[in-house]
Design brief:
The protein is α/β, with parallel strands linked by helices. It contains six helices and four strands. A four-stranded parallel beta sheet has the order 2-1-3-4. The protein is globular, with a radius of gyration of 15 Å.
């Protein structure tokens, strides 16, 4: 019986409500890994630090911005971060510094806190330290956010070793 040599990377994207930025990141990263032929290496999800939008689809402006790139995120549903996410996922990727602080505060151990990263750290040339919250700011804000998130997701993917 042969053992699988595929190492899976488990990545959770996190924002405040899981209605704008983190669903976009989940959709973009899923698209990028599919283009790279690396889908089998990853488990991808998204969550919010708050529970305001549990069960709702992503914001309609976010869905539109993603459709313009040929990516459908309409089937995603918002969920709140769970304590077990720190065990399930190798990386918890925050969209901004406040989300990062909230994640670190919720981590039960120092090892769990070490899994928390800031998305824009993977895109140092993008000119932004945080992905701004586009909620209720209209289509132009979402288009800008998608561009930032894409840069971060490309950098994140490039940073993760490919399995044989």
């Amino acid at each position: 019986m042969a053992c699988s040599s595929i190492t899976q990377h488990a990545v959770l994207f996190v924002c405040l409500g899981n209605i704008c930025r983190s669903p976009i990141a989940e959709g973009l990263f899923t698209h990028l890994i599919a283009q790279a032929g690396r889908t089998d290496e990853f488990m991808i999800d998204s969550a919010g630090t708050s529970g305001w939008h549990i069960g709702e689809p992503p914001d309609s402006d976010g869905q539109m911005a993603m459709r313009e790139r040929g990516i459908d995120i309409s089937r995603q549903r918002c969920r709140q971060l769970r304590a077990r996410d720190f065990e399930t996922f190798d990386l918890l990727i925050a969209m901004d510094n406040q989300n990062r602080r909230d994640l670190v505060a919720q981590a039960a151990t120092a090892a769990a806190a070490q899994k928390v990263r800031l998305l824009m750290d993977y895109a140092p040339g993008a000119g932004a330290a945080n992905v701004p919250d586009p909620w209720s700011c209209g289509p132009d804000a979402f288009a800008h956010v998608v561009t930032l998130i894409e840069a971060g997701c490309i950098g994140l993917l490039d940073s993760l070793p490919q399995t044989a």
